[in-house]
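My hope is that you will study the protein record below before we discuss the fold together.
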Amino acid sequence: MTKKKIYYNSVPQNPCSSREIFIPIKRYSSNFSEKSAFFTCPAWQHQTHDTFTVYASCKIHLQVTENDSIISNNLSSEELSKYIYLTPNWQEKNFTTLQIVDLFSNFFWTNEKNVWISVSPHPLTSLNNNFYHCGAWFNLSKWSRNVNIGAIIVDRLKPISIERGDPLFNIKFHTENQNDKFELIQKEIPENEIKNTQKRQSFFESGICQGFDYHSIIFDSKEKLKCPFNFLWKK
């Protein structure tokens, strides 16, 4: 069976993007010994084969203070402003959420049709790093973009502490056929993808985007008709 090709690379703004520093994304199953009791289970293998893990290429330490500000022992105030984004409701009860942008962000795209990407928490981050990814999914074939970290803090009184090499979250790819296989390839981001993303971001950051419904783009799985007279040859 031919594998569907998915491409990725760290975003240009990522200070850890050089090949000497960047830790590539790996298959989730590579974390486990083949001697593990569940490793030969066909159901487990089928579920995890096309699940991948994103790793931290650098260290970061964040703490929410009693005054509801964010401090760090290894990031400057300028870097905190650059890499940590807070929404107006970031302190919702029991769901203190920080968005970490650029620092661990990767851009994904594909030429395949109707491929979805899903983002899910890695099981160790709640235990080791005091956060878990909020998760998401969208139609990657129609919406190439970067994936950031929406970090929900487990214990607000404790810091988020990430070391280089720590797993951050998992990603998985889907089509209508759950037996499809995928190949994740690190590749230079095409210039047209970068420009299109920048234009789209500028649009959504402007008031002119009001009334535009992008949900039909990122969640619609229907392919466009090849011809307006499609009904004449469709049997």
About this structure: Helices lie at 42-48, 77-83, 125-128, 191-204, 215-218. The chain is about 15% helix and 30% strand. The chain has one domain: 4-194+214-232. The CA atoms of residues 203 and 209 lie 6 Å apart.
